[in-house]
């Protein structure tokens, strides 16, 4: 949190509220530091001046044009002060201010404070009051593109809210595709892709198209956690036996085996293959021991070579499968014995 | 008001015995430096940061109080002054707590206030019925919670609501727990098993902690895909040992806490490398001033100081009291309250 931009704003012609004629009627209200104040914080006269008057205005309940301007100054000094934002909304309603002017002002504030909960929430309330989302996609696009943070959680939340509330899904896949092209490891963009598809519906055609899309991305960057997670997420939409979804599209399994055979050892690829073979081992009664051995070997490779830091997880996966298969075997034996008994 | 308001005068120079400095400082817990850091929090005349964070003062006090208690140094603060401050912040109209006087009540600060009151065994000094009414009033028809009357919805608030009610022992017969659970589960992502702030929002370690903690408090951990989520959380550990909050982000001490506590609740703490994580957390200590920063070399703050100390406690570091992973409070307090957040067994 830096003071520099405020200094620019509150430059030479800054007149403290305590010296302003039109504020003479207000008695500034200092922060009550309780019965045992030890040290007064004397870092900024300006800050104290503005907030003493802001407290006075809030205590008095004055909702006027000058009070609105005062909150503008206060929020420029501390945009995270949610009480001031709330009071500002009260004023806006009371004096029936032009909310489009408020939107412009907020665009500016968000440009400087893109990671601030309060500003985004205020924006949302104003958009709701106006019932006009026409600037929201552009605003969030700017926050994600220009400010160099394509993963800004606040901007994505706001974008999802606007899309969901005002049904703005139409061009979203194109935008998301552009972001993924720019940075294939942008997890936020992959998440947004899933968000849109979930709304449009995972028809067999959509699933097919998305699997191809993702495999093409993985061909370019193999060790990409986001893309592999997305792939699994799409496969899980394929319906049918939910214990066999990872194997529902043989071309994906083939694709992964090809990567493996070509020598790729990305932990995400191996993790996917482990899940695939595990599913097969539990699903097929015939040669499940051979499949289980594949899982054990891959888990061992992960634990000792490719993902040593998480070795205990891989040891768990292997032992868990073993105990599941043992249990199945026992049940089968019991069943055969009771059959014999009859 | 600053933190030194609460410090007992007699503590003045008891830190003179601070550790001698040597080249290995960064590998050892600078215990007394951290105590001193918390005691001095906000003392510097020019503490811009402290003034800017007025709007979250209540949480700041909870972070400091809890960190000191984990270090066995709670008696350095004057109980009476802390409680006076907390009590002044309860809103007579809504029953919720404001971060400090002159601000509006909010769920975030209400939980912090209740946590502080529990730590001091002082729940009987406030109107708890009013707090319950405040929390209950914020639940929405879909089961979610507003943070305050302004209507922001977030899984953080679901956690704050059930944590507050659990500490007050009023979770049953207050809110609609079934609907609350349903909303939280609607924020679970099918791609990675994690949780975001709202349905469809990206998985994020801080919010996963809120949702896993929520399920722990409502005794619903069986709803989790533990293996899948557990793996995603393990993936947050980077080669240098620190944990990040989302793929391709930098490691951070607070995310280390959120991932670590979630894994602990799920009985999967052993899936990551504790030694490496401990190294990372210790590397984020400020050897000069005390306190922890978000990552190595940055400025310390009180928030990361609690999560640094808390993380080390979960990892079993010596000299620290055990911490409860769900409520981020010393375990002895949770025992005293006879509260039992659910925790899964190690498989």
Report on the architecture of this protein.
Chain B: InterPro entries: PGGT1B-like, Prenyltrans, Ptb1, Terpenoid_cyclase/PrenylTrfase. Chain B: Its EC number is 2.5.1.60. Chain B: It catalyses: geranylgeranyl diphosphate + L-cysteinyl-[protein] = S-geranylgeranyl-L-cysteinyl-[protein] + diphosphate. Chain B: One of its GO terms (molecular function) is metal ion binding. Chain B: Belongs to the protein prenyltransferase subunit beta family. The complex is a heterodimer of chains A (342) and B (347). Chain A is mainly α and 342 residues long. Chain A is built from 16 helices and no strands. Chain A is elongated. With 347 residues, chain B is mostly helical. Chain B has a single domain, classed as Glycosyltransferase (Alpha/alpha barrel), CATH 1.50.10.20. Chain B contains 14 helices and 2 strands. Chain B has helices at residues 31-39, 48-52, 57-70, 79-88, 107-119, 128-137, 155-167, 177-186, 205-217, 226-234, 253-265, 274-283, 302-314, 331-336; strands at 323-324, 329-330. Chain B has a two-stranded antiparallel sheet with strand order 1-2. In chain B, a hairpin with a 4-residue loop joins strand 1 (323-324) and strand 2. In chain B, helix 3 (57-70) runs parallel beside helix 13 (302-314) and helix 11 (253-265) packs parallel to helix 13 (302-314). The interface between A and B is large, with 62 and 60 residues.
Beta-strand percentage range of chain A:
under 5%
- Strand arrangement, largest sheet of chain B? 1-2
In total, the number of strands of chain B is 2
Number of strands of chain A: 0
The assembly state of the depicted protein chains is heterodimer
Count of separate structural domains of chain B = 1
Helix content of chain B: 40-55%
User: What's the rounded overall pLDDT mean of chain B?
Assistant: 91
- What percentage of amino acids of chain B are in beta strands? under 5%
Report the largest inter-chain contact.
Answer: A-B, 62 and 60 residues
The CATH C-level name of chain B is Mainly Alpha
Reported CATH architecture of chain B: Alpha/alpha barrel
Series of secondary-structure elements of chain A, N-terminal to C-terminal:
HHHHHHHHHHHHHHHH
Radius of gyration of chain A: 30 Å
Structural class of chain A: mainly alpha
Mean pLDDT of chain A: 89
Biggest β-sheet of chain B, characterized? 2 strands, antiparallel
Query: Major β-sheet of chain A, in short?
Result: none
């Amino acid at each position: 949190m830096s003071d520099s931009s405020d200094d620019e704003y509150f430059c030479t012609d800054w007149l403290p509220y305590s010296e302003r004629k039109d504020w003479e009627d207000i008695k500034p209200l200092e922060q009550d530091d309780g019965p045992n104040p030890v040290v007064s914080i004397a870092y900024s006269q300006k800050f104290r001046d503005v907030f003493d008057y802001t407290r006075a205005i809030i205590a008095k309940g004055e909702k006027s044009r000058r009070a609105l301007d005062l909150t503008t100054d206060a929020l420029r000094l501390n945009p995270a002060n949610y009480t001031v934002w709330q009071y500002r909304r009260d004023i806006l309603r009371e004096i029936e201010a032009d909310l489009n002017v408020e939107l412009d002002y907020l665009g500016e504030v968000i440009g400087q404070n893109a990671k601030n909960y309060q500003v985004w929430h205020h924006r949302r309330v104003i958009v709701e009051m106006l019932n006009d989302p026409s600037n929201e996609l552009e605003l969030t696009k700017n926050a994600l593109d220009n400010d160099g943070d394509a993963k800004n959680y606040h901007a994505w939340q706001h974008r999802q809210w606007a899309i969901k509330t005002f049904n703005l899904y139409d061009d979203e896949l194109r935008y998301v595709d552009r972001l993924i092209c720019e940075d294939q490891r942008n997890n936020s963009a992959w998440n947004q892709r899933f968000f849109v598809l979930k709304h449009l519906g995972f028809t067999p055609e959509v699933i097919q198209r998305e699997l191809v899309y993702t495999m093409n991305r993985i061909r370019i960057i193999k060790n990409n956690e986001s893309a592999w997670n997305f792939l699994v997420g799409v496969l899980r939409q394929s319906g049918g036996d939910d214990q066999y979804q990872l194997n529902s599209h043989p071309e994906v399994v083939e694709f992964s085996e090809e990567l493996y055979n070509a020598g790729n050892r990305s932990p995400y690829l191996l993790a996917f293959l482990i899940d695939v073979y595990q599913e097969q081992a539990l699903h097929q009664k015939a040669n499940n021991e051979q499949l289980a051995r594949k899982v054990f070997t891959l888990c061992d490779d992960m634990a000792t070579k490719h993902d040593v830091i998480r070795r205990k997880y891989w040891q768990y996966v292997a032992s868990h499968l073993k105990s599941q298969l043992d249990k199945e075997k026992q049940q089968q034996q019991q069943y055969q014995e009771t059959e014999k008994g009859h | 008001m600053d933190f030194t308001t609460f410090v007992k005068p007699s503590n003045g120079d008891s830190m003179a015995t601070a550790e001698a400095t040597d080249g290995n400082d960064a590998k050892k817990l600078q215990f007394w430096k951290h105590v001193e850091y918390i005691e001095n929090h906000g003392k510097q005349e020019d503490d811009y940061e402290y003034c800017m964070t007025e709007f979250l003062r209540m949480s700041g006090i909870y972070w400091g109080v809890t960190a000191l208690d984990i270090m066995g140094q709670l008696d350095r603060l004057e109980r009476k002054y802390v409680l006076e401050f907390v009590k002044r912040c309860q809103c007579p109209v809504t029953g919720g707590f404001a971060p400090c006087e002159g601000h509006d009540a909010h769920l975030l600060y209400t939980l912090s206030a209740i946590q502080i009151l529990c730590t001091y065994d002082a729940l009987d000094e406030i109107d708890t019925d009013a707090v319950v009414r405040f929390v209950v009033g914020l639940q929405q028809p879909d089961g979610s919670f507003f943070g305050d009357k302004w209507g922001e919805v977030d899984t953080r608030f679901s956690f704050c609501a059930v944590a507050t009610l659990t500490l007050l022992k009023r979770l049953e017969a207050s809110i609609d727990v079934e609907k609350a659970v349903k909303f939280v589960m609607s924020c679970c992502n099918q791609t990675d098993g994690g949780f975001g702030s709202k349905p469809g929002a990206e998985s994020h370690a801080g919010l996963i902690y809120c949702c896993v903690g929520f399920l722990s408090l409502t005794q619903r951990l069986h709803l989790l895909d533990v293996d899948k989520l557990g793996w995603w959380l393990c993936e947050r550990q980077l080669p240098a040992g620190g944990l990040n909050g989302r793929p391709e982000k930098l490691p951070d001490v607070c995310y280390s806490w959120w991932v670590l506590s979630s894994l602990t609740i799920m009985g999967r703490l052993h899936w990551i490398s504790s030694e490496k994580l401990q190294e990372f957390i210790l590397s984020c200590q400020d050897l000069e001033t005390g306190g922890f920063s978000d990552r190595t070399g940055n400025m310390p703050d009180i928030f990361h100081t609690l999560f640094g100390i808390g993380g080390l406690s979960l990892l079993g570091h010596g000299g620290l009291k055990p911490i409860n992973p769900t409520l981020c409070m010393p375990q002895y307090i949770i025992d005293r309250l006879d509260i039992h957040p659910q925790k899964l067994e190690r498989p």
